[in-house]
Recover the amino acids of this structure.
């Protein structure tokens, strides 16, 4: 299947039988070794339920359908649907939906097409321009997707896996690492795509954590974004500028109570330290002066 599929997909691209659309960030992965490595790192088997977003010409899909129990595909480009349906017409374990994943009701689709499984793997070569919204939608809207093996722009992959006191570490790093164990797997050069993107890519893996925090996540994530609103400023300055009802002295006292120096920047704190500060903040905010 895979060798015939490879020839067909390459022919479609080489003979211009498909119009590549930049608005969908379409860059088709052609390197079989990298494709196989992604599948290996996904750890799927015959009992796996899998979601794939943006399959393109099915480079990953052809391996997923052969290894997984059931597969749900989201493809926004209607011109790709008949091509994909032709490639996988003999496969009974795949459902292809012509829909923007960001507009989907994930849990309804899981119930309808994936037996309501609570242990789903997501595998995707993510569109560069909507990588973060897709990841956040999954983390915020469903508990059923337990692991994600994703290819994305190298810079974003480095940011998601970065640690405190590094140049890539920011609010997004903390938000994602709060909800998942994140691992950088390998770099993918831009030369293995057609058309060739301007930047290299990276493959990362997220494994969901069971998270039982006693506060509102939306408020916490807003607090994180406010903490990094101007990277070169101290945490106190960023917070006092974004929570104008609270003085600098309030935030100075907040940090002192938590044994944190008042000149610290957000990039120096890990997720647990931010949680500690935030809990204190919501407890004391009514006393802001």
């Amino acid at each position: 299947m895979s060798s015939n599929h490879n020839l067909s997909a390459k022919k479609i691209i080489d003979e211009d039988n498909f119009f590549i659309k930049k608005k969908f960030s379409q860059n088709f992965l052609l390197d079989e070794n990298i494709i196989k490595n992604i599948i290996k790192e996904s750890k799927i088997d015959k009992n796996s339920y899998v979601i794939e977003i943006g399959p393109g010409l099915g480079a990953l899909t052809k391996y997923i359908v052969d290894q997984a129990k059931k597969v749900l595909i989201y493809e926004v480009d209607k011109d790709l649907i008949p091509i994909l349906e032709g490639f996988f017409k003999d496969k009974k374990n795949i459902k292809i939906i012509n829909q923007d994943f960001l507009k989907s009701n994930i849990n309804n689709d899981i119930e309808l097409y994936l037996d309501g499984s609570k242990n789903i793997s997501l595998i995707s070569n993510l569109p560069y321009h909507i990588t973060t919204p897709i990841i956040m939608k999954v983390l915020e809207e469903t508990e059923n997707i337990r692991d994600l093996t994703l290819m994305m722009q190298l810079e974003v992959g480095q940011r998601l896996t970065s640690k405190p006191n590094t140049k890539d570490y920011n609010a997004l790093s903390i938000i994602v690492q709060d909800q998942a164990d994140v691992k950088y797997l390998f770099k993918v050069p831009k030369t293995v795509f057609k058309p060739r993107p301007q930047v290299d890519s990276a493959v990362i893996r997220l494994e969901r954590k069971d998270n039982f925090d006693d506060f509102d996540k939306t408020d916490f994530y807003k607090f994180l974004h406010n903490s990094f609103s101007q990277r070169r400023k101290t945490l106190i300055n960023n917070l006092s500028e974004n929570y104008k009802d609270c003085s600098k002295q309030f935030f100075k006292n907040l940090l002192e109570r938590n044994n944190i120096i008042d000149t610290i920047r957000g990039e120096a704190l890990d997720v647990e330290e931010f949680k500690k500060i935030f809990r204190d903040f919501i407890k004391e905010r009514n006393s802001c002066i």
Observations:
- The chain has twelve helices and nine strands.
